[in-house]
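Practice record 12: protein with calcium ion.
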Amino acid sequence: MSSPTPRTRHRLARRARIGRSVIATVAAGAVAGLIATAPGAAATPTTLEAPDIPIANVKAHLTEFQSIANANGGNRAHGRPGYKASIDYIKGKLDAAGFTTTVQQFTYNGATGYNLIADWPGGDANQVVFAGAHLDSVSSGPGINDNGSGSAGILETALAVSRANLKPAKHLRFGWWGAEELGLVGSKHYVNNLPSAERSKISGYLNFDMIGSPNPGYFVYDDDPEIEKVFKDWFAGKNVPTEIETEGDGRSDHASFKNVGIRVGGLFTGASRTMSSAQAQKWGGTAGQAFDPCYHRSCDTSSNISDTAMDRNSDAIAHAIWTLGSAGTTPEPDSVFENTADVSIPDNGAAVTSPVEVTGRTGNAPATLKVAVDIKHTWRGDLVVDLLAPDGTAYRLKNSSGSDSADNVITSYTTDASSEVANGTWKLRVQDVAAQDTGHLDSWKLSF
Ligand code: TRP
Ligand code: ZN
Ligand code: CA
């Protein structure tokens, strides 16, 4: 502000001996090299990306649905044993993967029908992202594209959620509906029996009915714009053109949800409608042929599937679940562990440390551990800063740099500490590796 301070004069004097400072820095760097430091310690947070859904797993589910039909009179229709066997197969997989499953019974045409609901524990119960598919076939065939395909696509996505041990902000729910082919009976039953307070917690319902048609189109439901965009963006990223679904709005279970004001979306690869030549050109299919020539016929078997369509749509489902499950919510506030005690840092001397005790955590530290430091110093290039995990592993936050003559290190670093147990004594270690300028650690904190 007014007359030159001692510090300013000091700094000017220091500029004349930069050569010496560099030598000191190199020497200190050699010492620091003995310490295990994590690569990319100051990396930025990573956005969680959906995994690639293994098409082999999806096809194994389709093979199972085919076997179930073969063993039960050739179909998996409402009121027939092949339907219940399909429910049991899916429920077994989900129970083993840690889902909370519920079988909801209803009666239609004098036969018992079943819906299967699977909840992934956790997430905001007031914001439910819901994916569903009808599991029944018509009685004339095994119903592998209609709708083993949607059933298998959401099943494998649910299993991927479990494999990833996903902790989404929103609550995830999956549903398999009975008796869709008889008039959306199962999904209507579910929605009618859902109290309005529960309906209003559903952020969105995503429907998958026929997503592996053998002569596939890539149709996205033109309904809720946010859901539609998530799907369209995924296909655009793969350079796969999409069209709006027009082969019958209200012809599948999303209508049951939409009718009570729930936002819906979904994917579809086409049923009995014929592929145009323009569509055949953009999708590489056969013009003048139905998207699914075996729609509602006995030939809707496990050979009635385009692997490419099944693969793309399964990945798109996972993308939507990952994206919508994490979007639009405020994450839980961070816990903060801080040490505000001053620690003086000896000039060109030994490293000093300052501890913070982390308690009350289970498991490991996050991949985005935030370390905020406040160091007052007259030449911050002198300073090497590391975070020490409870087991002593060092994470380099800042290297020395003889030319960085600015004051102070008041900043926040993000460190991948996911291989460290969270609870225990963490330390900030600071070393001044060049003579003359000095300072002290004012405070530092961990938050996660
Ligand atoms: N199972 C549906 C039905 O028979 C298949 C179907 C036709 C469909 N058009 C649709 C599914 C449009 C979703 C969107 O009606
Ligand atoms: Zn169907
Ligand atoms: Ca110094």
